[in-house]
Write a structure and sequence with these properties.
This protein has 11 helices and 12 strands. By secondary structure, the protein is α+β, with helices and mostly antiparallel strands. The strands form 3 sheets. Strands 2-1-5-4-3 form a 5-stranded antiparallel sheet. A 5-stranded mixed sheet has the order 7-9-10-12-11, covered by helices on one side. A two-stranded antiparallel sheet has the order 6-8. The radius of gyration is 32 Å and the shape is elongated. The structure holds adenosine-5'-diphosphate. Adenosine-5'-diphosphate binds near residues 269, 293, 311 and 324. It is an enzyme of class 2 (transferase).
Amino acid sequence: MANLQGAIDSLHQQLSARNAGLNQESRTLTAVLDGMAEGIWVTDAEGTVVRHNDALRGMLQTTGDIIGQRPLALLRNDGLNEAVIRACREGASTRLELTLEGLFPRMLAIRVTPLGKDLPGSAAVFHDVTELRHLEKVRKDFVANVSHELRTPITAIRGYAETLQGGALQDATIAPKMVDIIHRQSERLSELVEDLLELSRLESREVKLKVTDVPLAVAASRASEVVRHKAQGKKITVELNIPPGLVGRGDERGLEQVLLNLLDNAVKYTPEGGRVVVTGALEEARCVVHVRDTGVGIEPRHLARIFERFYRVDKGRSRDMGGTGLGLSIVKHLMSAMGGEVRVESQPNEGSTFTIFLPAAVPSASVAG
Ligand code: ADP
């Protein structure tokens, strides 16, 4: 009797130990699954979900029951449903991609696999590839845009060169005009390439900005010198009203480039006889510079996008004015690299105000007012 009791006790101990072990293993597995960024579900042999992790709930954007549901009820996608059936019945693996519509559409890459020979059922792993696909699209659009932008001047250069070769070179009135056009278009090409290189250096954080104290009135005055000729040609007055004591912390060359791009746009998109005014002030320990124009303005629906590469409100007008569509994108990158930002306010037909914010180099007392 005592022996039997002993055997039962020992069996009980062994079972308890094994139970504790299984418990631990199951908790570890749950913790691992819930810690994963990928969504996972496991189905039984009928294709009904019997287990899932936390990430899956977020991906499917559901608060309802997942366990006990069939794939079709959860995602309404025939391809996924068939993949689960194939995995359960034929032991076949499938990869597929689907888009979840809704307020925030998501793209999911899914791999459905059978569980194994002695384990009936299937498992599916869900990767959220929304961001990846978006980046791929941005890259493709960028390459398409660059090619298109390069093609325009190249076509012109080739066309005029061929016309010259075809005999126009002998024509004393036409030939110089054509050479002029070729020259202008090649300048345009090189501006485009320069802007692209600058943008790519900024985006890859290759440029090391040299942060110093920069008097903003000086930077604005240098930038305005560059556009003076263009402004005079259009009878546009450019007024600079930045207090001499307003000093920002930033890269001198970068700030001049920012102000030049903003001033150049202001002159470019303001009709003859207009006005461009640059003002500056210290606000809450930040330097604020406004570049205001009385130009064509920008409709509200375009405002959020004008800082994107190659985004233009009016492609034809921008090109005619010699724009590359990259200026504001460079401004935005430069400002953010200097710990500042750029904003825009605009009314169509009334004008635009571009405002840059930059860390200040001096205590507020010295330039207050
Ligand atoms: P672009 O070389 O075409 O001027 P930008 O990146 O500098 O490229 O500007 C993007 C677009 O934003 C311009 O094509 C233009 O439509 C609009 N824009 C920029 N500045 C102004 C402004 N001061 N007034 C009106 N529209 C502007």
